[in-house]
Amino acid sequence: MKKFNIRKVLDGLKEVSSSTPSVQVGPQENHLIQETLQSEHFQLCKTVRHGFPYQPSSMAFDPVQKILAIGTQNGALRLFGRPGVECYCQHESGAAVIQLQFLINEGALVSALADDSVHLWNLRQKRPAILHSLKFSKERITFCHLPFQSKWLYIGTERGNIHLVNVESFMLSGYVIMWNKAIELSSKAHPGPVVHISDNPMDEGKLIIGYESGIVVLWDLKSKKADCRYTYDEAIHSVAWHHEGKQFICSHSDGTLTIWNIRGQGKPIQTITPHGKQPKDGKKPEPCKPILKVEYKTTRIGEPFMILSGGLSYDTVGRRPCLTVMHGKSTAVLEMDYPIVDFLTLCETPYANDFQEPYAVVVLLEKDLVVIDLAQNGYPIFENPYPLTIHESPVTCCEYFADCPVDLIPALYSVGSRQKRQGYSKKEWPISGGNWGQGTQSYPEIIITGHADGTVKFWDASAIMLQVLYKLKTAKVFDRNRSKEDKGSTEVSDEDPFAIQIMAWCPESRMLCVAGVSANVIIYRFSKLEVTTEVVQLLEVRMQYELNDIESPDCGGGEQTSALPTPGASPQTSGPPSHPSTSSNNSDGGNMPCLKVRSTPLKQSAGYQVDLVVQLVWVSGEPPQQITSLALNSSYGLVVFGNSNGLAVVDYVQKTVVLNLGTVELYGSNDPYQRQPRSPRKTRQPSGGLCDINEGSATSEDRCKSPTSAKMSRKLSLPTELKPDLDHRDNSFSRSRSSSVTSIDKEAREAISSFHFSETFARKGDSTLTPCLYVGTTLGTVLALALTLPPAGEQRQLQPVIISPTGMLVRLKGSIMRMAYLDSTGAMLPPAFEPWFEPNVTADGEEREKVRKRRPVSVSPSTSQDLNESQYAVVCSEKQAKVISLPSQTCIYKHSITETSFILRADVVQMSQGVCLACFCANGHIMTLSVPGLRPLMDVNYLPLTDMRIARTFCFTNLGQAMYLCSPTEAQRLTYSQDTCENLQEMLGELFTPVETPEAPNRGFFKGLFGGGAQSLDREELFGEISSGKASRSLAQHIPGPGGIEGMKGAASGVVGDLARARIALDERGQKLGELDEKTAAMMASADYFSKHAHEMMLKCKDKKWYQF
C-alpha cells in the first residue's frame, strides 16, 4: 500500500492559503513583553523626491517669484525655489509635458500635455494641486502663450488654428483664429502646425503667429484679420521680439536666423548663419543643423544679446551640444555635456516692452541643469545647490541611516568641502523663491549611495532636504590601464568593473567597507589628515566550491575549522600573486584577481582612506563568485563577506584572513541537505548574479579580466536573486519556488545571504554572553559562530582571533534577509562598536589602548535561567519571520509574511515608541510587524514593482523613514510613521511668497502725447462671451480639478502660517486702499483745476465773434 505523506498535503495547503496568514505563537507564559507599538503609530506617505527630473521635456520660470518649473516625458512636474525648497507633482495621465507657462506672480502654473490636455496648477499651497483641466478632442496642442498680466491663454494647434482659454474659469472663448484666414488666399498649401505665438511688446492688439512651414503672420486681434505676412523658404523653429516691437527674429531649420521689420513684408532685413562657413564668392553659406530656439534680449547700455541652441555645421561630427551667446561682435560657443532640451534667459523685468537686462541663462539638458552668468566675462556657470547629481554615475546600491551621531555630518562636510571645484560665478544662485518649512524634526540623517564607476557618495538627508557631503572614489585603489594583450579590452570599455555591490558602515567608528562587482572588498578608515600610502595592503583569498574535498576542509584555501591562522595568511602586498594558503589547485596558473591593485604610492586626502583591500582570485579557470553579503564590526576589528562558495572573516587590525569556510562546512556533520558532489574539472558556471558566463568556461586569456569581460553579461542583482534555482527570471520578478526548504532536489550551491554580529549566548543553555557572528543562508538556515577575541591594546595586534562554529540556530522558509537581537525588555541590542579615533596620529599609548566601547547589554538578574530568558533573536527570511528565545533557542513567535510573493528588503528598526520589523514585498506591499510578538501593524499596497532598480535600492531606517530610487536620476523618500505624516505639512517649504509686482515702464511724455509706447487691449471685451459668442462644445471638455479642496486643506494647516498670510494680505489691502485714496484725491484736485480753467476760458471767449478767434 502506498504511503500517505501528510507533509506534502500540508505544503500544498500552505501554497493556496491567503497571503496574510495569522501569527502563530508558541508557548509564551514567560515572554509577556509589553509591546508599545500599535497600528495607529503607522501611516505610509511619500515625503519628498530628490534628484534630477528624469527625461525632462519643458521648462518655465517666474521672474518675480523666482521659481523654476520643469516638466518631464512621464507627466511629472518638479518645482524649484531657493536651495532646500523643491516640490514634486504628477499628472495622472502620465503624458509628456510639452509646455509650461507661469501666471507670473499669481502663484499658478499652466501645463500643456502631449495628450492635448491643459491644466491649471495652484502653487499657493505646499502640495500644489490642479484647479482646472481642459481636454481637447478634435485638435492637437502644439504651442501655448500667456501674456504677462493677462487671463487669456492662446493655444495653437497642429491644424494651424488658435483658440483662447480664460485661465480663471478655464472656459474656451468663441474667438478663434483660423489658419485659412491667417494665410493669403492665393496660398494653396497648409502652413503647418503653429510653432509660435506672442503679442507685440508695444501693442497687445497685434499677435505674431509662426507656422512650421516658414510663414509668419502679424494678426490684428480687433479687426480679426492679418496685417502682414512674412514668408521664408525654411521651416521655423522659434520667434523672438525686440522689446520695442518694431523687429522680430526667426530661427530656421537650415541653421539661419532671419531678422524682420514688422513694416517690411518682402524680405528679411538681415540673414545670419552663426556657425556657417562664409564662401568667398558671395554665395549662400552651407546649411547647418537647425537652430531650435533663439532669444533676443536688450540692455540699456551696450549691445543686445542673441542666445541660441543648435545651428552647428554638419561637419562637426562628434562635437558636443552647444549654446551660442552672441553679444555685439563677440560670439561665445558654450559646450554642454548632454543634449539641450530647452533654455530660458533670466531678465530683470517681467515686462516685454522694457529693456530686458538679461543676467543669466538656465539651460535644461537631458541629464543636468546648468545656469550661466551673463554678467561676468567668460560666462562662468553658477554652482548648482540642488542635489541633482545622484545619477552622475548610475546608482547600484543605497543605505539609509537615521538618528546618526551628531558629529558625523560636520565631519563629512568638512572633508567634502575641500573637494569642491573652483571657477564658479561669485553671484548668488538666481532661482531664489519660496520659503523653507518650519519642521521640528532635527535628528541627523545620512544616505549613502554606491555607483557604477566605484564612487560612494554621502548625503545629508536631515529634515527632508538632501545635500551632498562627501564623495569617495574607490577605483583609485586599482590600476585602470588594462594590459595590451587583453583581447577583450575594446569590448569591455563601457563596462563597470569598479561598480559598488554592497556597503557596510559603522556610523560610530566611521569604518566603511565596500564590496565591488569584481569580487573585491575594500576597508576604509576615516581621517581628518592627508596621508600618502606607500603600499596598499592587500589580502588575496581563494574561495572555491569543492564538495568532493570535504575530507580536507581547505575549501577555498583558508584555515581549518579551528580558525587558527596559518603562516601563509600573512598580509599580501601587491607584489606577485601569492595566497593565504597553498592549495593543490593553484598549479594551473589561474590565481589572478579580477582587478590589479596599484603598486605606486597612493596619495589619500582627508576623508576615507583605504586600510586594506581583500580580493577573491580566479581558481581553476573559474572567476570568483560575486559577493552576496557583507558586514563589519569595529569593536571586534572584523569584516566578514560571503558568496555562493562560502564565507571569509578578515581581521583588519592584523590584516589576516581568520576564517575561510565553505558553506557546507559550517554545518559540520549536521548538514540537513542532500548535496550532489560536482567534479572539479566540470565546466562551471558561476551561480546567478553579476558574472554569468554565457559561452562555456573562461579561457586562459580571460582569467585576468574583470567579471565584466566580453564573455560575461553583467546584471547588478539582489542577494535574494543569487540562487541558481530561480529559473533565470528577468526583471518581472515572477518565479516559482518550492515552499519546502527541505526539498532534496535543490542545487548544491547555498549562498550566504546575511550576517549579524552580536554579543549573545553562543550555545544552547549558555549563561554568559560572548561575541558571536550569525550567518544566514539562501536556504533559510541561521548558523552561529563564536568569536574569541584577544584583549584590547597591544595583545589585539599580536594574538589571533579564534572562531568556532557552534551549530544551527533556526531554519526558515526562503533566504535569510535580516537578523536582530532584543534584550529581555524587548529593546533592541545594537552591535558593539568602537568610538572613532584619528588613525593617522602616532599612538602615545593612551589613545590606542582605549578599551573597546560596547553598548551595555541588559541581562535580567533572573534567579533561574529557565524561568527568565535574557535575549530574543528576530530572524526574517523572504517568506516568514521567527523570534527565538535565548539561550534556550526555542521559537516563541512565528509569522508567515507572504506565501505568494517574497520579501525584497527587511529591516528591524527603532521607532520613537518601540521596535518593529519593516518589510518591502515584491508584490508592492509595505508591512510592519511588532517585535517580539510579530503582530501585523501596517500593510499597505504601495507600488507595483516595475523594475530591478526599486528592489536594489529600497531601504528602511529608524524613526519611520525609507527611500528608494524611483528612476535612474531620482530618489523617492517616504515615511511609515504617523508622527512624521502629521508634521509633514509644517516641514514642507512654501513655493509662493507675497512679492510686489515691479512697476511698469514709464511711457514718457512725448510717447504719451504722440501715441507712442505700449498700446493696451481690452481682451475681456474682445474675447468674452458677449462679443465672441460661445465656443463649440465638442472642441474641448472642461474637467474641474481637486485643487480647490486640497487648497482648503493646505490653508487649514498651520494656524501661524494662516495668521501671517492674513496679516500680509491685510497690509497689502491697506496699502492698496491708501494708494487708491491718494490717487482719488489727486484726480479730484485735477478735475477741480480743469473745471476752473474751463470756466475762465468760457468767460474770456463768451463775447467774441467767430472771426476774432
Describe this structure as you would to a colleague.
The chain is mainly beta. The protein is built from 12 helices and 62 strands. It has a 5-stranded antiparallel beta sheet with strand order 1-54-53-52-51, with no helix packed on it. A hairpin with a 3-residue loop joins β53 and β54 (890-896). The longest helix has 47 residues, at 1055-1101. The chain is elongated and about 130 Å long. The N and C termini lie far apart (138 Å). Residues 1-22, 483-494, 548-589, 679-747, 844-867 and 1045-1057 have low confidence and may be disordered. This is Syntaxin-binding protein 5-like. Belongs to the WD repeat L(2)GL family. It is found in: Cell membrane; Cytoplasm. WD repeats lie at residues 229-263. InterPro entries: Lethal2_giant, Lgl_C_dom, LLGL2, V_SNARE_CC, WD40/YVTN_repeat-like_dom_sf, WD40_repeat_dom_sf, WD40_rpt.
Give the tags:
1109 residues, mainly beta, 5-stranded antiparallel sheet, 12 helices, 62 strands, 11% helix, disordered N terminus, transport, GTPase activator activity, cell membrane, protein transport
Topology:
Elements: H1 6-16, E1 23-25, E2 42-51, E3 56-62, E4 67-72, E5 76-80, E6 86-90, E7 97-103, E8 108-113, E9 117-122, E10 129-136, E11 141-145, E12 152-157, E13 162-166, E14 171-177, H2 179-182, E15 194-200, E16 203-211, E17 215-220, E18 225-231, E19 236-241, E20 247-252, E21 257-261, E22 270-272, E23 291-297, E24 305-310, E25 322-327, E26 330-335, E27 340-347, E28 358-365, E29 369-373, E30 395-402, H3 408-416, E31 445-451, E32 455-460, E33 467-473, E34 500-506, E35 511-516, E36 520-527, E37 531-533, E38 538-541, E39 602-604, E40 607-616, E41 629-633, E42 638-642, E43 646-651, E44 656-662, H4 663-667, E45 692-693, E46 712-713, E47 752-760, E48 770-777, E49 781-788, H5 794-798, E50 802-811, E51 816-823, E52 871-877, E53 880-886, E54 890-896, E55 903-911, E56 914-921, E57 925-930, E58 936-941, H6 948-953, E59 955-957, E60 961-967, E61 970-977, H7 978-987, H8 1005-1010, H9 1019-1023, H10 1025-1028, E62 1036-1040, H11 1043-1052, H12 1055-1101
